[in-house]
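Margin note from the TA: students keep mixing up input and output lines. Inputs are the sequences; the output is the structure of the whole complex. Example:
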Amino acid sequence: MEQQITINDIYLPHMENYARTQIFYGGSSSGKSWFLAQRCVLDVLKGGRNYLVCRQVARTIRSSVFQQIERVIREAGLLDYFTINKSDALITCANGCQILFAGLDDVEKIKSIVPANGVLTDIWVEETTETERGDVKDLYKRQRGGDESIRKRMILSFNPILQSHWVYEEHFKAVAWADDQQNYYSDNLSILKTTYKDNRFLTTQDRHDLENENDKYRYDVYTLGKWGILGHVIFTNWRVEDLSGMRNQFTNHRCGLDFGFSSDPAALVVSHYDTKRRSIYIYDELYERGLTNDRLAERIRERAEQMYIVCDSAEPKSIEELKLHGVLAMAAVKGKDSILHGIQWLQQQEIIIDKNCVNAKAEFSTYHWQEDAGGNAIRKPTEKNNHLIDATRYAYENETIPSGASLVGFI
Ligand SMILES: Nc1ncnc2c1ncn2[C@@H]1O[C@H](COP(=O)(O)OP(=O)(O)OP(=O)(O)O)[C@@H](O)[C@H]1O
Ligand SMILES: [Mg+2]
């Protein structure tokens, strides 16, 4: 069989791009991840290069970037040249070069990771907006050593969710990046911005969805690939911390669940409430599509064993199924104005999000009010990217519902 890889034209010049730091960013479905997976496979096949592919959270790797690289190998008819070890997340080429994978949350693994031969020539941080600046800086140290002539790369790929993000501060400000610019190149840094228009493998439905996005923020970021700017953000009372050392102090658990299956994810928030300080510590999350209720129950029990889970009441059957699988599920009451009440109450708390709760971070930072035709905020939140926010509202519903009502539907 003839081996073939078809690369979108816009990325072709980047096959031979050896800038030290390389940024591939832009709108959704623009072919960034696919191209980087293709280049990774071809580099390793040619020999002399080893890759470390990272995301913030290790448990998200197998279902995303590992799977994409595996698909590129399979579809290009290259399976004979690679040994793919899914359980250890390791791909080894017949020539000895390797593709290693690690989550930045797996600190010990990251510190000790080395390929079988040579050095890590390439580190690819997929979905870089999930990460903290310091953790990515530390990654450069993992590339020390080796032959002077080998050109090393740090590759960052992401959607530009917010202009206040450290990636913008660090790499875009320095080169006075203009939002209508598409390319920047120096030996130190390259930037390529792409959108769905640059990906000729998209389906008509994908294009239609992106072109018909009616939320201005999402249209700018995911359709046009512009750095996100939010005028009417709802939550500013949150911050990110490393909560890993505090877990055993968390006793006042509050958990909420928003159901989802295909287009929306199932979203679980696991938190601790410091009643005195009015501080909410979000220290674990689940954010996953395609889970049947038995698998969902398993995932919940891994994160919140023996904790009460306040669930979206719109799915009573799912709640019953979760109970059958040993989850202490109860239905949220919701009721009139519960969304606005819940939001107002949450705005009055201090919210601390663990740095590995990347989806909670993304939702709290971008949740915003809808706008009228004149661009003014209306008292209605956007109904997208609100899954973990809804779950948080359910978790704290008993604090927020007006007096005269009470929770029902428990076991
Ligand atoms: N060279 C290619 N050959 C075949 N299919 C491709 C190619 N490039 C992209 N695709 C298809 O387009 C889809 C979207 O591409 P990709 O996932 O790389 O986009 P992305 O820019 O990483 O999007 P996001 O920002 O949402 O992560 C892929 O799932 C794949 O089906
Ligand atoms: Mg991608």
